[in-house]
Amino acid sequence: MSLIMAVPHAFSVAELKDLPTVLVSALSFILIPGALIFCLQLLQPGPVIKGAKGSLIDQYLFGIETKLGFLSGRSAYKFNALHEKYGTPTTPPHPISDPPLTLLLGNIVRFAPNQLSSNTLKGMRNIYGAAGKSNVFLKTAFYKAISRRNIFTAQDIHYHATVRKLFAPSLSPGCMAAHEPVIKGCIARFHDLVKTRMQRGSALSLNDLYYSLSVDMVSEVLLGKSLGCIERGRPFFWTEQLPRIFYWATIRDQFQGSGIPTMIKWMLRQILRKGIRQRSEEARMRLIREQLKATHTRRDIMVEVMERSESSTLPEDEIAENFSAIMLAGFHTTSHAICATIWLVLSHPDVRAELQTELRGAFTSTDDISLDVLAKLPWLNAVITEALRVYPPVPLGGARVSPGAYVDGVYVPAGVEVSTSLYALHHNSEYFANPYKFAPERWIDPASTDKKEAVQPFLLGSRSCIAKYFAQQMLLLTLASFFVEFDGTYVGRVRDWTTDSRCYAFWEIPDLKVRLQDRMASPSA
User: Fold this and answer.
1) CATH no. for residue 159?
2) Which of 63, 140, 152, 201 is the most exposed place for a label (fewest CB within 10 A)?
């Protein structure tokens, strides 16, 4: 019996007594043709890209496996697995040379009809380091779904250069040194909070506490005002929205045209409070506008930027938007890097012992800690760099649109999206021996053959993280203070963060539950 005949027949049987048959017939009549039409729309293999391998399922079904990786929280691992499976280098002839030249193609994999991923340093340089040249890889439409135009989302390279020129001088290493006392003050207040919580006798969950510290450090240095999250012991809701913003922007981008983002958004609106993102944005902008009008008691970054803004073409509203973007990005990435590094050190007793020996030999208390000395401690710097390699705070590089250019020897046609997976780059066995091992010694061993420049947690080129020196400063001071003052044991449920963490657009880090002892208060101190 045909589908067209099945439905009316079902409705005529004993006045709808056979309801299951009715439902099956009706759904079949509606869903099967719809599914066929949907699949026909998906069966678009995309342009021919020689040298970029990938799963046929992904290529012909709009990257369904990778998209499921985003939904299930396995995106970083999925991209890495694709590179390990399909990224075997080959030696094809150069397509534009005469006579043909032979060169080694890098690891470029195809995870959707019109999307590629790279895990090589050369590929990263081609994609992100081409600013100012004719073959610039511009940001994709994905960024428009994140927020209004700012230094992170802007596709216009001239606008980006204008913003960077305004903000970058105040975020340089020399200028950031002036803010060391402010950061140390935040850390001292944070340690007081931790010691108060320790009196309860149970293990502490440090995630929210370190997020609160990051919020106060960033806001006080950037805007000249602490938000008081350390004293509250938890962050404000609007400071935690970056992962959600990026997650929904990713879902919208990856499932564009499928109806899935609209469906999920409708479902969430039925169970969640409306306007969370809007209220979060309003709270951030209200804070920034208040600080723009306030009298500042010290030369924070906002004071310096606004002095330079008198000769800038940027209006005040756009300057405020860029303060908001830099602030929000700093909250999340800093706290996650701190927590991941603490977990890695506590999970490797030999690394912890050597770090404590180095730090406690250099400082008798946290009051003695200084950036000048920290910069010269080889093991501390090796630990932080290795932590950023193993567990980069932003595991997936931002996608760019090819202008029609080569990426690590592979010609990427115009309009194709390409990115570098930082997690896959940092775990590329061509660059690192035992890439999955947390081995800080690789950074100070003169016999190491690892390709050190392949670790790029802040990206590179003109679109690299504008606040990377600020982030490094916070990491050095915060981690040094922790291991000078406390002895700790990790007692969290997730035993291996490097394999069991969830990753959507960012990591969703496990609970950093630690049993702490105040070393300075112990009899053996």
Assistant:
1) 1.10.630.10
2) 201
